[in-house]
Automatic annotation (TrEMBL):
InterPro entries: BSK, Kinase-like_dom_sf, Prot_kinase_dom, Ser-Thr/Tyr_kinase_cat_dom. It is an enzyme of class 2 (transferase). PROSITE patterns: PROTEIN_KINASE_DOM (PS50011). This is non-specific serine/threonine protein kinase. Its main location: membrane. Pfam families: PK_Tyr_Ser-Thr. It comes from Populus alba x Populus x berolinensis.
Amino acid sequence: MGCCSSSFLSETHPEKDHKKTHQQQPPRSPSGSAVLDPATGVPSFCEFSFSDLKTATNNFSSDNIVSESGEKAPNLVYKGRLQNRRWIAVKKFTKMAWPDPKQFAEEAWGVGKLRHKKLANLIGYCCDGDERLLVAEYMPNDTLAKHLFHWENQTIEWAMRLRVALYIAEALDYCSSEGRPLYHDLNAYRVLFDEDGDPRLSCFGLMKNSRDGKSYSTNLAYTPPEYLRNGRFTPESVIYSFGTVLLDLLSGKHIPPSRAIDMIKGKNIILLMDSHLEGNFSTEEATLVVGHASQCLQYEPRERPSTKDLVTTLAPLQTKPDVRKFNLHHIF
């Protein structure tokens, strides 16, 4: 089947005008392929058959698993290759995580409409029997977590860390402006590096892990306090999680926010900084980023900045546009 129009989408997105309905459905394309959008260069969103994704991932081989936590992850991510040679990332949900195929298709369709150069964009989905899968652009140069916490050749230089902070803030601001402000479980594993070594935000976090699933799967020490209090997940909760990513960028470690806040209050900013930077950073810039992190981690959601505020404050720190990329190693 490859990519094709979905009956689920036509049912879940009724339009009074037939022409409008036709335009809103995913385009058709050859089996096991994907049609490029000439405006963005990104494949148009479509529905894949399970057989196509099975072929692309070598029957979902364990050798193709690219999710950081490997086979222990509840929803595995595989790398795959379509018939047109394009590499893809396929997120395979546990059986019946989304029992209603219409609901899954509708959620995927909402995310699939987003297109931004700072996102690892969603290019398709699969509802085939009990199978529920998402298909995204494949980012070949690992995650922020890998480069910060488990690097082998070189750590990320300061200018690149500033770029990561801005690019992710821009991606979140774009999603918010497009009516998708909720990003689930934002952390260093959700930040990916593309073929040029630039950071992108994974589109997978724009959908929950299941219809009724929790929004956070990481350690509770990093979970927004309001979510722990009442289970409410809001755009301000995303800002809190962004603050934890800023801490990761500053320290090169996954430090619980409560401990980091104590260090910030104690004016121990230098102690907070990643020793692997060997002092190669601007103390003034680091102080500003620490201040942004502190604002994002405010206990009261209303006291946290907006995504637009973050973009405005982080943009002036980008003083090295030709920042050297770390050693790239494509996993092809």
